[in-house]
Amino acid sequence: GSVKIPTYINVISGKPLTATERTKREGQAVRQVRVLNRSYSGRSADDAAKTPFRFTLVQTRFVVNSAWATMGYATAAEQEAKAELRVGGADTLNIYAADIGDDQLGWATFPQQYDADSTNDGVVLLTDSMPGGSAAPYDRGDTGTHEVGHWLGLYHTFQGGCNAPGASVADT
Q: What's the pTM?
């Protein structure tokens, strides 16, 4: 069976976007969800894992807020944006696309964090790491795939070391 995940992409900018910019960002959001579906269905590479997860873009929302547009990890701006914009429950993916700081491409919460801090749930991405962005070579949506993996509970293979429980995945 398939696990369908309603997905909201919040495009946060420091100034109002022109119609052309909005159209570009809307297209990036649609393509980002396509990349997620291709990646999690096992169609992205010969050795890709097939999973039951499928993502449905419910809405792309455009938000103008100069503080949130350059949010950093675990900052007040991140907390405020998520508290204001987050929709749905633990089964809903909220992506916050912004011009994030600290030379980061993105970050995500893990599912085990949800009960303690549900308003912080979600994935933050550098907007230009979505397909069609300008963050080459990181402009194909793979940062989204990576961070959504964390949101689904996957660790890096090196996390936890080589001894049990390691990455909590049997082959690592």
A: 0.92
Per the annotation, the verdict on 147 as an active-site residue is yes
Q: Which of 21, 78, 84, 147 is catalytic?
A: 147
Q: Is the dihedral of CA 51, 171, 116, 61 positive or negative?
A: negative
Q: Could you give the dihedral angle defined by the CA atoms of residues 85, 116, 129 and 84, in that order, rounded to the nearest 10 degrees? A: 10
* pLDDT tens sequence across 33-70: 999 999 999 887 766 778 999 999 999 999 999 999 99
Angle 166-40-27 (CA atoms, 0-180°, nearest 5)? 125
Which H helix or E strand runs over 106? strand 106-108
Peptide bond into 16 cis (omega under 30): no
Q: Read off the tokens for 134.
A: 């300008």
Q: How many residues in total does the chain contain?
A: 172
pLDDT at 130 over 60: yes
pLDDT at 50: 87
* Gap between the Cα atoms of 88 and 7, Å rounded: 9
Give residue for tokens 């070391």: 161
Q: How far apart are CA 59 and CA 44, in angstroms?
A: 24
Q: Which two tokens stand for residue 124?
A: 């933050």
